[in-house]
Amino acid sequence: xxxxxxxxxxxxxxxxxxxxxxxxxxxxxxxxxxxxxxxxxxxxxxxxxxxxxxxxxxxxxxxxxxxxxxxxxxxxxxxxxxxxxxxxxxxxxxxxxxxxxxxxxxxxxxxxxxxxxxxxxxxxxxxxxxxxxxxxxxxxxxxxxxxxxxxxxxxxxxxxxxxxxxxxxxxxxxxxxxxxxxxxxxxxxxxxxxxxxxxxxxxxxxxxxxxxxxxxxxxxxxxxxxxxxxxxxxxxxxxxxxxxxxxxxxxxxxxxxxxxxxxxxxxxxxxxxxxxxxxxxxxxxxxxxxxxxxxxxxxxxxxxxxxxxxxxxxxxxxxxxxxxxxxxxxxxxxxxxxxxxxxxxxxxxxxxxxxxxxxxxxxxxxxxxxxxxxxxxxxxxxxxxxxxxxxxxxxxxxxxxxxxxxxxxxxxxxxxxxxxx
Length: 421
What we know:
Helix content: 55-70%
Mean pLDDT: 80
Largest sheet: 3 strands, antiparallel
Strand order of the largest sheet: 1-2-3
Low-confidence stretches: 374-383
Shape: rod-shaped
Oligomer: single chain
Strand content: 5-15%
Radius of gyration: 62 Å
Distance between the termini: 140 Å
Order of helices and strands: HHHHEEEHEHEHEEHHHHHHHH
Number of strands: 7
C-alpha cells in the first residue's frame, strides 16, 4: 500500500479480522446445530444473528482503500506528469521575474547583434571596395611603371599602390622619391593624367580633354615619348585642346592633326594666343595660326622657301627693299644645309668649297654673304646696297649648289615649298 493509505488500511483490516473470527464461529455453531437437527428435525434453533454480523462499512472501507490504491497505481504516470508540471510551474513562478529580466536582456542583445551584423556587412562591403580599389590600382601601377620606364629610359622611378588608401607612392630604387627633377615631375604628372583618361567612369568619347604644355623641361627624346603616349590616349576624345610653347612638340601635334584633317576624321583648327598691353593691363586674344607656323615644318623649310621663291622671281620686278633680308636668309640656309652635308669642315666657306659648282659662283656666293650678311667686322668699303640687285641670280646659284650637292634633297624640298597645281 502507498504510505498515505497504510494507517487507514491497517485499522480497517484489524476490524475486519476481528469481525471475520466471529462470523466463522457463527458458521461453526450453525453447522453443529444443523447436524443435531437431523436427529431432531423439529428442534428449534435459537441464534442472535446481529451479534455475529460483519459490519459492511468495514468491508467497504477496506475495499475503498484498495480501490484508491489501485487507482493511484493505474494513474501513476499521469500523477507523475501532473507533479512534474506542478513542480515546473512552481519553478517558473519562482523564477518568473528573473526570466522576464533575462528575456528582455536577450531581446536587447539580439537587437544589438542585428545592428552589429548590419555594421559588419557594411564594413565588409567597404573592405571589398577597398580591396577592389587596391586591385584596380595594382594593375595600373604596373602599367605606369612600364610606361615611365619607356618614357624616361630607366626604371629608377616607380609607382607603388598604397595599401592604406586608394593612391600611389612614388619611389626611387625602393625609397621614397625626393628631389625630383622638373622633367621627372612633368613625366610623372603627364603619364598619370593620361592614365586617368582610361578610367572606367570617364566616357572619353563624350569628354573634353585639355592638355597644357605637357613637355616642359623635357629633352627631345622624352618629348617624342610624351607625344606618342598622348596620341595613343586622346585620339578617341570627343574634343581635344592641346596648348604648347614648344615648337618641336607643336610640329608633332600639327602633323598628326593635319593627317586627321586630310582623312576627314576630325574637325581641326590651329590657333595662337597673342598678348598685348592695353590701358587696363595685359590681355590675350585667340587668332588664326600664323602661316609661317602653319605652312612650314621647320625654320629650314621656311628659309628654303624664301630662297627658292627669290631664285625663281621674275627678273627686274623685285625691289631692293624686298631683297635686304635675303643675305641673312641665304647664309642661315647654307649653314644648315652644309652642316649636315660636310660636318667635318670647320666654317661656312670651307664647306662651300666642297660643293661641285663653278669656282666663280662659289666666290660670288661668299662675297654676297660676307658683304650683306651679319658679320663681326665693319662693312667692307665696297659694300653697296645696289649690289642687292644681284640677289635673284645669287639665290639661283645657291639653289644650283644645293641641287648638285644633294639632288634628291633638293627635289623633295622643292616639292614641299611649291604649291600643288
